[in-house]
Amino acid sequence: MRTIDLESLKIFRTVVDEGGVIRAANKLNRVQSNVTTRIRQLEEHLGTRLFRREGRSIRLSAEGHTLLTYADRLLRLADETVSEMRTGKPKGVFRLGSLESTAGSRLAPILSRYHSVYPDVVVELATGTTGALVTRVVNFELEAAFVSEPFTAPSLQARRVFEEQLVLVTSRAIGKVSAPADLGRSTLIAFAQGCSYRKRIEEWLGSANVMPERIMEFASYQAMIACVAAGTGFAVVPKSVLEALRATKSVRQHALPKRFSNNGTYIVWHGDPSPSLRCLLSLLVTAADG
Description:
By secondary structure, the protein is of the alpha/beta class.
Protein backbone atom coordinates (compact mmCIF):
# COMPACT_ATOMS: atom_id res chain seq x y z
CA MET A 1 0.00 0.00 0.00
CA ARG A 2 1.32 3.46 -0.90
CA THR A 3 2.53 5.39 2.10
CA ILE A 4 1.78 9.02 2.89
CA ASP A 5 4.66 11.25 1.81
CA LEU A 6 5.85 14.09 4.01
CA GLU A 7 5.27 16.68 1.29
CA SER A 8 1.56 15.87 1.23
CA LEU A 9 1.41 16.25 4.99
CA LYS A 10 3.21 19.58 4.75
CA ILE A 11 0.68 20.82 2.18
CA PHE A 12 -2.20 19.59 4.34
CA ARG A 13 -0.86 21.34 7.44
CA THR A 14 -0.25 24.57 5.53
CA VAL A 15 -3.87 24.58 4.32
CA VAL A 16 -4.94 24.22 7.95
CA ASP A 17 -2.54 26.92 9.18
CA GLU A 18 -3.47 29.38 6.44
CA GLY A 19 -7.20 28.69 6.62
CA GLY A 20 -7.67 27.88 2.94
CA VAL A 21 -6.20 26.59 -0.32
CA ILE A 22 -5.48 29.97 -1.93
CA ARG A 23 -3.43 31.32 0.97
CA ALA A 24 -1.70 27.95 1.35
CA ALA A 25 -0.74 27.96 -2.34
CA ASN A 26 0.75 31.44 -1.98
CA LYS A 27 2.66 30.40 1.12
CA LEU A 28 4.06 27.31 -0.61
CA ASN A 29 4.69 29.04 -3.95
CA ARG A 30 2.46 26.54 -5.71
CA VAL A 31 -0.47 26.97 -8.07
CA GLN A 32 -3.86 26.57 -6.44
CA SER A 33 -4.80 23.56 -8.60
CA ASN A 34 -1.71 21.68 -7.42
CA VAL A 35 -2.59 22.17 -3.74
CA THR A 36 -6.21 21.16 -4.39
CA THR A 37 -5.08 18.04 -6.24
CA ARG A 38 -2.67 16.99 -3.49
CA ILE A 39 -5.38 17.37 -0.84
CA ARG A 40 -7.82 15.35 -2.96
CA GLN A 41 -5.23 12.62 -3.50
CA LEU A 42 -4.55 12.51 0.24
CA GLU A 43 -8.29 12.16 0.96
CA GLU A 44 -8.61 9.39 -1.65
CA HIS A 45 -5.64 7.53 -0.18
CA LEU A 46 -7.07 7.76 3.36
CA GLY A 47 -10.64 7.11 2.26
CA THR A 48 -12.12 10.04 4.15
CA ARG A 49 -12.89 13.75 3.90
CA LEU A 50 -10.36 15.93 5.67
CA PHE A 51 -12.21 19.23 5.26
CA ARG A 52 -15.82 20.38 5.37
CA ARG A 53 -16.88 23.36 3.28
CA GLU A 54 -18.90 26.03 5.05
CA GLY A 55 -19.92 28.72 2.60
CA ARG A 56 -16.72 30.16 1.17
CA SER A 57 -14.53 28.78 3.96
CA ILE A 58 -13.35 25.30 4.93
CA ARG A 59 -13.04 23.62 8.30
CA LEU A 60 -11.28 20.48 9.43
CA SER A 61 -13.42 17.38 9.75
CA ALA A 62 -13.05 15.10 12.77
CA GLU A 63 -10.81 12.87 10.65
CA GLY A 64 -8.82 15.94 9.61
CA HIS A 65 -8.17 16.80 13.25
CA THR A 66 -6.87 13.26 13.80
CA LEU A 67 -4.55 13.48 10.81
CA LEU A 68 -3.29 16.91 11.93
CA THR A 69 -2.10 15.42 15.22
CA TYR A 70 -0.09 12.77 13.38
CA ALA A 71 1.10 15.19 10.69
CA ASP A 72 2.53 17.57 13.29
CA ARG A 73 4.34 14.71 14.97
CA LEU A 74 5.72 13.17 11.76
CA LEU A 75 6.90 16.51 10.33
CA ARG A 76 8.51 17.43 13.63
CA LEU A 77 10.32 14.10 13.80
CA ALA A 78 11.50 14.53 10.21
CA ASP A 79 12.90 17.98 10.98
CA GLU A 80 14.59 16.68 14.14
CA THR A 81 16.10 13.75 12.26
CA VAL A 82 17.60 15.95 9.54
CA SER A 83 18.90 18.40 12.15
CA GLU A 84 20.52 15.71 14.26
CA MET A 85 22.11 14.07 11.23
CA ARG A 86 23.61 17.41 10.18
CA THR A 87 24.50 18.97 13.51
CA GLY A 88 24.23 16.21 16.10
CA LYS A 89 21.65 18.29 18.03
CA PRO A 90 17.84 18.23 17.98
CA LYS A 91 15.66 21.17 16.96
CA GLY A 92 11.98 22.04 16.57
CA VAL A 93 8.98 22.01 18.90
CA PHE A 94 9.00 19.59 21.84
CA ARG A 95 5.55 19.25 23.43
CA LEU A 96 5.98 18.20 27.05
CA GLY A 97 3.40 17.69 29.79
CA SER A 98 3.82 17.96 33.54
CA LEU A 99 2.00 17.96 36.83
CA GLU A 100 1.80 21.50 38.17
CA SER A 101 3.71 20.39 41.28
CA THR A 102 6.56 18.94 39.21
CA ALA A 103 6.70 21.99 36.94
CA GLY A 104 6.84 24.33 39.91
CA SER A 105 9.30 22.50 42.13
CA ARG A 106 11.44 20.24 39.94
CA LEU A 107 11.67 21.26 36.30
CA ALA A 108 13.03 24.81 36.34
CA PRO A 109 16.75 23.90 36.62
CA ILE A 110 16.39 20.95 34.26
CA LEU A 111 14.60 22.90 31.52
CA SER A 112 17.01 25.80 31.96
CA ARG A 113 19.92 23.43 31.38
CA TYR A 114 18.08 21.83 28.44
CA HIS A 115 17.56 25.24 26.82
CA SER A 116 21.22 26.18 27.21
CA VAL A 117 22.45 22.91 25.69
CA TYR A 118 19.77 22.59 22.98
CA PRO A 119 18.76 26.17 22.09
CA ASP A 120 17.12 25.14 18.81
CA VAL A 121 14.45 23.11 20.63
CA VAL A 122 11.30 25.03 21.63
CA VAL A 123 9.74 23.36 24.68
CA GLU A 124 5.96 23.81 24.90
CA LEU A 125 4.99 22.85 28.45
CA ALA A 126 1.40 21.91 29.29
CA THR A 127 0.23 21.14 32.84
CA GLY A 128 -2.59 18.93 34.02
CA THR A 129 -3.56 16.00 36.20
CA THR A 130 -1.95 12.60 35.75
CA GLY A 131 -5.09 11.21 34.12
CA ALA A 132 -5.34 14.06 31.62
CA LEU A 133 -1.64 13.98 30.79
CA VAL A 134 -1.54 10.22 30.21
CA THR A 135 -4.51 10.54 27.85
CA ARG A 136 -2.78 13.31 25.89
CA VAL A 137 0.40 11.24 25.51
CA VAL A 138 -1.61 8.19 24.42
CA ASN A 139 -3.37 10.39 21.82
CA PHE A 140 -0.03 11.80 20.58
CA GLU A 141 -0.98 15.33 21.66
CA LEU A 142 2.10 15.38 23.89
CA GLU A 143 5.39 13.66 23.20
CA ALA A 144 6.03 12.90 26.87
CA ALA A 145 4.75 13.89 30.31
CA PHE A 146 5.73 13.87 33.96
CA VAL A 147 3.02 12.03 35.90
CA SER A 148 2.62 10.57 39.37
CA GLU A 149 1.69 7.13 40.59
CA PRO A 150 -0.80 5.57 40.73
CA PHE A 151 -1.51 5.52 36.98
CA THR A 152 -2.22 2.90 34.34
CA ALA A 153 -0.68 3.25 30.88
CA PRO A 154 0.35 -0.19 29.52
CA SER A 155 0.95 1.20 26.01
CA LEU A 156 3.53 3.74 27.22
CA GLN A 157 7.17 3.59 28.25
CA ALA A 158 7.80 4.87 31.78
CA ARG A 159 10.84 5.85 33.86
CA ARG A 160 10.81 6.85 37.52
CA VAL A 161 12.61 10.19 37.87
CA PHE A 162 11.64 11.92 41.15
CA GLU A 163 10.63 10.91 44.67
CA GLU A 164 7.98 12.97 46.43
CA GLN A 165 6.86 13.01 50.05
CA LEU A 166 3.18 13.84 50.38
CA VAL A 167 1.96 15.60 53.51
CA LEU A 168 -1.49 16.39 54.82
CA VAL A 169 -1.97 20.13 55.38
CA THR A 170 -4.55 21.95 57.50
CA SER A 171 -4.85 25.42 58.95
CA ARG A 172 -2.56 26.10 61.88
CA ALA A 173 -5.62 26.21 64.16
CA ILE A 174 -6.15 22.45 63.71
CA GLY A 175 -4.45 20.16 66.21
CA LYS A 176 -2.48 17.03 65.44
CA VAL A 177 -4.04 14.73 62.83
CA SER A 178 -2.80 11.15 63.04
CA ALA A 179 -5.83 9.31 61.60
CA PRO A 180 -8.62 10.14 59.11
CA ALA A 181 -11.19 10.30 61.92
CA ASP A 182 -9.32 13.27 63.41
CA LEU A 183 -10.49 15.38 60.48
CA GLY A 184 -14.16 14.89 61.26
CA ARG A 185 -16.30 15.81 58.26
CA SER A 186 -14.07 18.55 56.90
CA THR A 187 -13.82 19.77 53.30
CA LEU A 188 -11.27 18.18 51.01
CA ILE A 189 -9.46 20.71 48.81
CA ALA A 190 -7.99 19.08 45.72
CA PHE A 191 -7.43 19.12 41.99
CA ALA A 192 -10.05 17.63 39.67
CA GLN A 193 -10.59 13.90 39.20
CA GLY A 194 -7.55 12.34 37.57
CA CYS A 195 -5.12 13.79 40.11
CA SER A 196 -2.91 11.04 41.57
CA TYR A 197 -2.42 12.89 44.86
CA ARG A 198 -6.18 13.17 45.25
CA LYS A 199 -6.38 9.41 44.78
CA ARG A 200 -3.85 8.98 47.58
CA ILE A 201 -5.77 11.09 50.10
CA GLU A 202 -9.06 9.42 49.12
CA GLU A 203 -7.43 6.01 49.66
CA TRP A 204 -6.21 7.11 53.08
CA LEU A 205 -9.64 8.41 54.06
CA GLY A 206 -11.30 5.30 52.66
CA SER A 207 -9.07 3.03 54.72
CA ALA A 208 -10.95 4.32 57.78
CA ASN A 209 -14.34 4.66 56.06
CA VAL A 210 -14.17 8.45 56.34
CA MET A 211 -15.77 10.68 53.73
CA PRO A 212 -15.14 14.42 53.46
CA GLU A 213 -18.16 16.63 53.97
CA ARG A 214 -17.60 18.04 50.51
CA ILE A 215 -14.85 18.48 47.91
CA MET A 216 -13.68 21.80 46.54
CA GLU A 217 -11.70 21.57 43.31
CA PHE A 218 -8.97 24.06 42.40
CA ALA A 219 -6.55 24.46 39.51
CA SER A 220 -3.47 25.70 41.37
CA TYR A 221 -1.53 24.92 44.51
CA GLN A 222 -1.38 28.59 45.44
CA ALA A 223 -5.19 28.74 45.66
CA MET A 224 -5.40 25.41 47.47
CA ILE A 225 -2.85 26.38 50.12
CA ALA A 226 -4.44 29.81 50.62
CA CYS A 227 -7.82 28.19 51.31
CA VAL A 228 -6.29 25.62 53.65
CA ALA A 229 -4.48 28.37 55.56
CA ALA A 230 -7.77 30.26 55.88
CA GLY A 231 -9.41 27.22 57.50
CA THR A 232 -11.58 26.15 54.55
CA GLY A 233 -10.49 22.53 54.63
CA PHE A 234 -7.56 20.13 54.25
CA ALA A 235 -5.42 18.97 51.34
CA VAL A 236 -2.51 16.73 50.45
CA VAL A 237 0.49 18.26 48.68
CA PRO A 238 4.11 17.33 47.96
CA LYS A 239 6.46 18.72 50.58
CA SER A 240 8.61 20.09 47.76
CA VAL A 241 5.72 22.31 46.64
CA LEU A 242 5.31 23.82 50.11
CA GLU A 243 9.02 24.60 50.11
CA ALA A 244 8.99 26.02 46.57
CA LEU A 245 6.05 28.30 47.44
CA ARG A 246 7.58 29.22 50.81
CA ALA A 247 4.33 28.12 52.42
CA THR A 248 5.67 25.79 55.11
CA LYS A 249 4.80 28.28 57.89
CA SER A 250 1.34 29.23 56.64
CA VAL A 251 -0.19 25.77 57.20
CA ARG A 252 0.21 22.88 59.63
CA GLN A 253 1.76 19.72 58.19
CA HIS A 254 0.74 16.22 59.29
CA ALA A 255 2.62 13.04 58.39
CA LEU A 256 0.82 10.34 56.41
CA PRO A 257 1.59 6.60 56.61
CA LYS A 258 4.48 5.70 54.29
CA ARG A 259 2.32 3.77 51.84
CA PHE A 260 0.39 6.97 51.18
CA SER A 261 3.16 9.55 51.58
CA ASN A 262 5.96 8.02 49.50
CA ASN A 263 5.17 8.77 45.88
CA GLY A 264 7.12 8.43 42.64
CA THR A 265 7.01 10.80 39.67
CA TYR A 266 7.52 9.21 36.24
CA ILE A 267 8.12 10.43 32.74
CA VAL A 268 6.01 8.52 30.18
CA TRP A 269 6.24 8.42 26.39
CA HIS A 270 5.39 6.39 23.29
CA GLY A 271 7.81 3.86 21.77
CA ASP A 272 11.31 4.94 20.80
CA PRO A 273 12.08 8.46 22.08
CA SER A 274 12.63 11.26 19.58
CA PRO A 275 15.99 13.10 19.55
CA SER A 276 14.53 15.90 21.71
CA LEU A 277 13.12 13.47 24.26
CA ARG A 278 16.26 11.35 24.26
CA CYS A 279 18.29 14.42 25.21
CA LEU A 280 15.88 15.25 28.04
CA LEU A 281 16.08 11.69 29.36
CA SER A 282 19.86 11.99 29.37
CA LEU A 283 19.71 15.24 31.34
CA LEU A 284 17.38 13.64 33.88
CA VAL A 285 19.90 10.85 34.45
CA THR A 286 22.68 13.41 34.86
CA ALA A 287 20.58 15.43 37.34
CA ALA A 288 19.80 12.29 39.36
CA ASP A 289 23.47 11.28 39.48
CA GLY A 290 24.48 14.80 40.51
